[in-house]
Every structure is written in structure tokens, then in C-alpha cells.
């Protein structure tokens, strides 16, 4: 019989000697003495679901989460319905979620709306039970109500949020009544970075800095227009921040979307002081390094590996070495590794063995209800190889642009697969063998989709 989690206050979601204590859909009964967490061989897997707002797949109707044990996540007879009975995460739009390394805590900073910029954390209790720990803190005064933030990989101690404000600068050649003759000079880009103590919910440091490109690049109208995904290096003394470049026509100061795509860039600044920013440039990849909703760069074996997006030659995985410069001898093209064209890395996550699961689209992707069709691949950072994961079903409505979270448990990586408005499943990829396990069923509703596990 398929087991279905229904709506009650406490779900034990545990593995006991007698088997799974999961309520059947016909007769949900809460466990009066729930265990405090999974057994020692398990961990919580929190599934995140994004409800439709105005259009299928936009995720603007809010985010709901629901947790089960890792054993249940691997069990295809288990069925969960977060859209019906999940915990509603405070956020005006799609929440920006993070989880502790052991899965016992969920961190959230609300995105936009009246609560935008509010940091809260929750103890995972199974099912829809998420208990807020202490009081929250707002980072909106520092980085606005729609912050881009990430949890640094420092033992769940620190989060970092960033923003950039830009303003075009002109000289004063025009008359007081007609500024049309003013000459465009450059864009002033001001970066703000705040670090947050995740343990006691307090602000650690905040700094603003001016970001400049080379004189030649700025003369052509380029400037840093968006930043995201701060990553701590292995030494713990530098923070890397991904960047997107935009361009104007310097003759008019108007947006120019037809210009050359410049080599990929990353901002490097001192940590924990957040001072002395510099901009480094890749000799391998082009386009952007800020990602979108998911973590875009990870420290592995002393270096930081980073995906780029919008590269005319398809996404690469780039490498920044301990000297805080790009290693241009490391060339890992996803197009070449997969034998595809126009690969675009949407989200990815490596295990400790250097093998990673990558969510991507490419030139073969069909147009679905919300955008281009997505796929998953297993990549090896050391061997620079990749292969499409064929044991996961794909269809045009399988939309991964907003995908956020993978769970790494040893060499296993958990992910969600569910097309927009259709049921799907959790899948578990053994990165050592490539074996894929079909897991719990994910119940969907019209126009909505799943954005990962935490």
C-alpha cells in the first residue's frame, strides 16, 4: 500500500523496529510520542515546493516545505503533498532557503513584501512541523527587502547577503534646459555586503564598496549590474562573489544588449573585514558567475569551482585557486563533456568526492509550460567528465530555472523531479557508482513546481 502523509500537527516520520510509522491516507493518526529526529543512520530531507502566482511555474504564490527521513525519501511507496499540508515559509515570493549540514535546521530570509529581508531559522520536526528558534533579525536596512544571500560553508555559523546599486554618470556638456548633449562617462556600481551570525541571529559586519572594471571596459559601456552567491575560500580569508555584467551604448547611455559578452568575472574581498574588493577575470569562460537561485560555486580540495552562465560557448565549470586567481589551465566545458550545444548550468552541487549533480538545459531542450526543459548530469570535477542521468524522466514541462536545493549525504545526492503541475519523485544519485534510486512520490497541483531538497 502506498503511504501518504496527511495534515496533522506532529509526524514522527521515523524508522522504528516495527517499520515506518506513516499515517495512511484513510486514517491519519498523530503519533503521541514523536521521536526528536531521525535515527543515527538517517537525516531529515526537507522538500521545498513553489506555488504558482499568476503564471505556471512562476513560483510567486509562496513556498511550502515538508520534511521526511532519508529512508522515507528513498522509498517510492511514500507519498507527500506539501501543497496541501506543508509549512508555509514566510516570503512574499519564492523563499531563499538554506539548511544546516545535518538537515536539522532550516534557514530562511524572506524575499520581498512586508517581511522582506527578515531572517528566521527553524528546527525541523518532521512533516509540516518547523519550530522557529528564538527571534529573527532584519537585514533589510543593510541590503534591502529582496536580498540575495547564501550560507557560507563554515559549519553553519555564518550567512552572507549582497546587493549592488548602479547609477550612470554623465559630464555636464548640455544646457540646463537640455541635458541630451551630456556625455556618458561610466556607471558607478556600489556593492553592499552583510554577514550574519546564524547561531544567535545577529549582524556581524557590513561594508559598502565601489566596484570598477578596467578603464577600457568601462569606456565601452560595461559595468557590474548584479552580484550573488558569496563563497568562502579554503583559507577562510577571502570571499568570492559572482558577478553579472551589463552594457550601455556609450554614445547614448542607453542599454545595449547586442554587445560582446566579456570574460567571466568574480569579486574578491577580504574576509571577515569585507574590505579591499578586487575583480578577477577568467581566461576560459565568458558571461556571468552570479547564478540565480542556487549556490553557484563551491570549495573543493583547496580551490573554488564555479559555474558560469550565458557563455556563447556553453557553460563551463571554472576554477579559482588558493592564490585567489582563476586557473586558466583548468578547462571544463559542459558542451564538450556532454556532447551537446548551448549547455546552461541552472544549479549544481558536488559531494566531497568531487563528483557533482548538475541541473542544466541545452539546445535540445523543448519549450514547456514555464520555460525551457531541464536535465540532470553527473560530473566529475577531477576527470572533467559528464554524463546525462538517463534514469530520471524528462518532459518539456520539467522546469529547473528556479531550482535551489540538493542534499548531499556522504556520496549520495538527493534531488527532486516533478514537471510543472504534475506529480514527480525524489531521486537519489550515488555519485560513486552513478546508480539512481527512485524515491518518494511528490504530489503536485496545477501550475506549481518543486524547487529542491534541503
From TrEMBL:
Domain of life of the organism encoding this protein: Bacteria
Signal peptide range in chain numbering: 1-23
Keywords annotated in UniProt: Signal
Protein name according to UniProt: Lipoprotein
Source organism (scientific name): Algoriphagus machipongonensis
Amino acid at each position: 500500500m502506498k503511504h501518504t502523509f496527511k495534515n496533522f500537527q506532529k509526524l514522527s516520520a521515523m524508522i522504528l523496529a516495527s517499520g515506518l510509522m506513516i499515517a495512511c491516507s484513510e486514517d491519519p493518526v498523530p503519533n503521541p510520542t514523536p521521536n526528536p529526529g531521525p535515527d543515527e543512520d538517517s537525516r531529515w530531507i526537507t522538500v521545498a515546493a513553489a506555488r504558482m502566482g499568476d503564471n505556471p511555474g512562476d513560483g510567486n504564490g509562496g513556498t511550502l516545505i515538508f520534511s521526511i527521513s532519508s529512508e522515507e525519501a528513498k522509498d517510492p511507496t511514500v507519498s507527500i503533498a506539501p501543497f496541501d499540508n506543508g509549512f508555509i515559509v514566510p516570503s512574499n515570493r519564492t523563499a531563499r532557503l538554506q539548511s544546516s549540514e545535518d538537515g536539522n535546521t532550516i534557514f530562511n530570509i524572506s524575499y520581498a513584501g512586508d517581511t522582506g529581508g527578515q531572517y528566521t531559522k527553524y528546527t525541523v520536526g518532521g512533516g509540516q512541523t518547523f519550530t522557529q528558534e528564538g527571534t529573527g533579525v532584519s537585514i533589510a536596512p543593510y541590503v534591502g527587502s529582496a536580498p540575495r544571500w547564501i550560507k557560507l560553508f563554515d559549519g553553519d555559523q555564518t550567512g552572507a547577503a549582497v546587493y549592488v546599486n548602479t547609477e550612470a554618470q554623465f559630464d555636464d556638456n548640455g544646457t540646463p534646459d537640455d541635458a541630451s548633449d551630456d556625455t556618458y562617462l561610466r556607471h558607478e556600481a556600489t556593492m553592499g555586503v552583510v554577514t550574519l551570525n546564524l547561531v544567535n541571529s545577529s549582524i556581524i559586519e557590513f561594508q559598502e564598496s565601489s566596484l570598477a572594471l578596467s578603464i577600457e571596459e568601462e569606456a565601452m559601456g560595461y559595468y557590474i549590474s548584479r552580484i550573488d552567491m558569496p563563497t568562502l575560500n579554503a583559507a577562510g580569508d577571502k570571499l568570492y562573489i559572482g558577478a553579472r555584467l551589463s552594457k550601455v551604448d556609450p554614445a547614448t547611455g542607453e542599454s545595449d544588449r547586442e554587445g560582446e559578452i566579456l570574460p567571466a568575472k568574480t569579486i574578491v574581498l577580504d574576509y571577515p573585514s569585507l574590505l579591499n574588493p578586487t575583480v578577477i577575470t577568467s581566461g576560459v569562460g565568458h558571461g556571468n558567475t552570479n547564478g540565480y537561485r542556487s549556490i553557484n560555486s563551491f570549495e573543493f580540495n583547496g580551490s573554488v569551482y564555479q559555474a558560469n552562465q550565458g557563455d556563447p560557448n556553453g557553460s563551463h565549470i571554472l576554477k579559482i585557486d588558493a592564490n585567489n586567481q582563476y586557473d586558466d589551465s583548468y578547462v571544463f566545458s559542459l558542451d564538450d563533456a556532454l556532447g551537446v550545444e548551448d549547455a546552461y548550468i541552472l544549479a549544481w552541487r558536488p559531494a566531497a568526492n568531487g563528483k557533482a549533480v548538475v541541473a542544466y538545459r541545452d539546445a535540445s531542450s523543448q519549450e514547456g509550460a514555464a520555460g525551457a526543459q531541464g536535465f540532470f548530469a553527473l560530473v566529475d570535477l577531477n576527470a572533467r567528465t559528464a554524463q546525462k542521468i538517463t534514469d530520471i524522466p524528462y518532459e518539456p514541462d520539467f522546469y529547473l530555472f528556479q531550482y535551489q536545493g540538493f542534499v548531499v549525504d556522504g556520496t549520495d545526492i538527493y534531488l527532486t523531479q516533478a514537471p510543472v503541475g504534475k506529480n514527480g519523485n525524489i531521486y537519489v544519485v550515488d555519485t560513486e557508482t552513478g546508480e539512481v534510486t527512485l524515491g518518494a512520490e511528490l504530489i503536485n497541483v496545477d501550475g506549481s513546481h518543486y524547487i529542491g531538497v534541503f
